[in-house]
Amino acid sequence: MEISEAKLETLGSIDEGGRNMHFLKPFSIFVCAGVIVGAIGFELTHGTHLAVSASWQALARLPGGSWGLTVVSAVPMGPASSLAATRYVIDVKRSDIMVRAFSGGIARFKGHDHFVRPSEFSGDVELSPGAITPASLRMTIRAASVEETRPIFTPPQKQIINKELREIVLLPDQFPDITFKSTDVTVTPASGGHFDAKISGDLTLHGVTRHIVIPADVAIEGNSLRAKGEVEFERSDFNVKATTAMHGMIRVHDHLKLTFDIVANQL
């Protein structure tokens, strides 16, 4: 789809050294964000390297929400099986998921990068405390809640961007949810009580499912679990379109970066 030069000016494009314009499918990743929480299926006390196989047992609504996914871990093996499962639920107010869409094209210096975020997402995870146990995670992001958040854009410009996110890029009427389901978690101890996790799973965006691996720094602080990291992917892998301007001279780059800082609270 092409946008006239007049519209380009309306969007307030300026030189940013090659960064771009419209957003795209992030959420594919936003979804990814929930992913990180799955990293907690590991032995906190033994500090050993392990692989965790996902096992989905339940899907339910979160308290007070119209939509939400509850993830239940598999029954733990060995002595830990007698321990009560610990449940952590993602705290949306304290968590952040952001997809950066880079500017591309031969005239990319005319545009801005876009920082898009979802405001509606949910997920949780259960595990047996102090044990090496299979854990699983499922997370859902509402595609219609994904919006431009970069301060450089004015409110009218954001309205235009968000409209195109819905009508051209994410198509939430057809694909309302972006989801992630973990299939395997590998964890190794790091410094300061943290763990380096690699969360493998299936990301579904725009009706397309791809297997991805998300690296994350995971820590349990009091009654909260926190996971931070970033992952990169190509929007074309999920058949996500992007808008263009100046007869295609400016276009959203195929490469996207998802960053996340997820906090989940123990119930």
Can I get a quick summary?
The chain has 267 residues and is mainly beta. It has three helices and 13 strands. It has one domain: Beta Barrel (Lipocalin).
How much helicity do the residues have?
Answer: 10-25%
Q: What is the CATH T-level topology?
A: Lipocalin
For the record, what is the CATH homologous superfamily label? Lipid/polyisoprenoid-binding, YceI-like
CATH class descriptor name: Mainly Beta
Give the radius of gyration.
20 Å
Main beta sheet: strand number and arrangement?
A: 8 strands, antiparallel, barrel
Work out the strand percent.
35-45%
Could you give the topology of this structure?
Layout: H1 5-10, H2 28-37, E1 50-53, E2 86-90, E3 96-104, E4 114-118, E5 121-127, E6 136-142, E7 146-148, H3 155-170, E8 177-189, E9 195-205, E10 208-221, E11 224-234, E12 244-245, E13 250-266
Antiparallel strand pairs: 1-8, 2-5, 2-13, 3-4, 3-13, 4-7, 5-6, 6-8, 8-9, 9-10, 10-11, 11-13, 12-13
Structure description:
The protein is mainly β and 267 residues long. It has a single domain (5-266), classed as Lipocalin, CATH 2.40.128.110. Helix content is 12%, strand content 40%. The chain contains 3 helices and 13 strands. The protein has helices at residues 5-10, 28-37, 155-170; strands at residues 50-53, 86-90, 96-104, 114-118, 121-127, 136-142, 146-148, 177-189, 195-205, 208-221, 224-234, 244-245, 250-266. An 8-stranded antiparallel beta barrel has the order 2-5-6-8-9-10-11-13. The radius of gyration is 20 Å and the shape is globular. The N and C termini lie far apart (47 Å). Mean pLDDT is 70; it is low at 1-82, 104-109 and 245-249.
